[in-house]
Write a structure and sequence with these properties.
The protein is of the alpha+beta class and 129 residues long. The protein has one domain: 3-Layer(aba) Sandwich (Glutaredoxin). It has 5 helices and 4 strands, in the order ααβαβαββα. The chain has a 4-stranded mixed sheet with strand order 2-1-3-4, with helices on both faces.
Length: 129
């Protein structure tokens, strides 16, 4: 029984370290200029407008709950882009995405906010303003 608690403690510790690693990585992206992104997302970033780039994978359970919210917002706002990390690995790498879902807000070609994990609709609406 003690072994089980030790294993659970180690697992919990590793999860905390992973969350800190993700948060530090996200913080480092703020203010970074984004270059080399093609297609519609690249054009939107080059325009200088505020852009929301949502990075996801179809197999991610958190992404499956976040995606309908993003799709609803796409119907209301311009410059919201869904990026499947498996299909567009280079774009994810350019944004420094290390976990999904990750939502990145870019304005004037620079990262202004990085949100790792799911967010509610109100938080995303606020980030778009």
């Amino acid at each position: 029984m003690t072994t089980v608690f030790i294993i659970l403690g180690i697992f919990a510790g590793l999860m905390i370290v992973l969350q800190v690693f993700i948060a530090v990585g996200a913080r480092r992206q703020r203010g970074r200029q984004i270059h080399g992104i093609g297609g519609p997302l690249g054009a939107a970033i080059s325009s200088g407008d505020r852009v929301l780039a949502y990075f996801y994978t179809p197999s991610c359970s958190a992404c499956r709950t976040q995606t309908p919210i993003i799709e609803r917002l796409q119907g209301e706002y311009e410059n919201i882009y869904k990026v499947d990390v498996a299909e567009h690995f280079e774009a994810a790498r350019a944004f420094g995405v290390i976990a999904t879902p990750t939502t990145v807000i870019v304005e004037e070609g620079k990262v202004v906010e990085v949100m790792v994990g799911s967010r509610n609709e109100a938080h995303l609406r606020e980030a778009l303003l």
